Amino acid sequence: MIYTVRLAIQVALGGAMMGSIVYFTLCVIGSRKWLRDCESFSSKEDFSPPVSILKPLRGEDPLQYENFQSFLSQDYPSYQLVFGAMDSEDKGLDTARRLLDENPGSDISIVSGAAPIGMNYKICSLIEMMKFTRHDLLVLADSDMHVESDYLRRIIAPFKSPKVGLVTCLYRGYHPQGIASILEGMGIGASFAPSVFAAYLLEGISFAFGSTIVIRRDVLEEIGGLECIVNALADDYLLGNKVKKAGYDVALSDYVVDDALGRESFADMWGRRLRWARTMKAMRTVGWAGSGITHGVPLAILFLIVNGFHSLGWTVALLMLLYRYLTAFYVATNATSDYNIIRYWYMLPISDCLDFSLWIASFLGNTVEWRGIRMNVTPGGELTNQGKSARGRSWR
Fold first, then answer.
1. How many angstroms separate the first and last alpha carbons of the chain?
2. What are 84-112's pLDDT values in tens digits?
3. Count of the separate structural domains present in the chain
4. 396: which DSSP letter?
5. Domain limits for position 59
């Protein structure tokens, strides 16, 4: 009886690992398709309509001044920077004021005191900040992002097509310090980015990321404005989804943004990633449950254990690990230029096991903590029952 059960488990794990191999292959194919499609964004035509950049703030981030400065140092003819926070005493606003003081001729607006009209305070801040924007192309970018001087030109380029209603960007870990940050960077580069490429191949892009969302003002108004997502946790995901449902194209830019990680505790890193996992479970329950087959390395470890550490188990585990490394390295070096994957290659199996643990933990509750605020997530991604806690830095 025990032998029969073990055999059945091994067969099930074997099937799941075959699914992992297919998935890893799709990630590579999807990254190649994305690179080919991005060639259509390139053009010698000068396309540089004026832009308003909105940066919602909550507290301090690693390298915050340098991050803000990078958005001010764009090779672009006309753009406005709008910083905003709910609390007028927010530390992030101090950094924004320093930036304004040191660059007095720059087009910078600083906004605070938004009314808490919904559960998502980031969106409440953005709604208030919108009152101070002057241009019809809007860039929403998380405060902990760092960019190069060609950022605006590249993310605006897809709007040459009138079919495009929204542009978003992938991101990669930047300047990680300590094991927790390295693991987060590995999760971004080796798990998150490849999953986006698999989705890009199979269904296209119908979502967006907080790293960068570029949207036309008229399109935003057409889908109901930011007010339509003021109670949603996955506000970035829903913006892209609503634009897609409205009949517009959502483009994945060829620009990959740097996410300044700095130093963080394991608890903060775990809480943030668990929030993301439970958000995905709420938004795409069936798909999220099925994504268990994408965790090839942990599945191979389980197979090795159930197999009793015999030669077959070791062979399967080593082959799975090898294929995982090959595909992760390919995506990191050829598509996202995320050299954290190469630099910290020895952390990849640990990162994969952490991802698997987060996937399991996502089914064990519906409470999340978002920058110091505890909330429950309902099916569909709505927020309820918020209560403040001590921790908190920028909205992300």
1. 50
2. 998 888 999 999 999 999 998 899 999 99
3. 1
4. -
5. 1-396
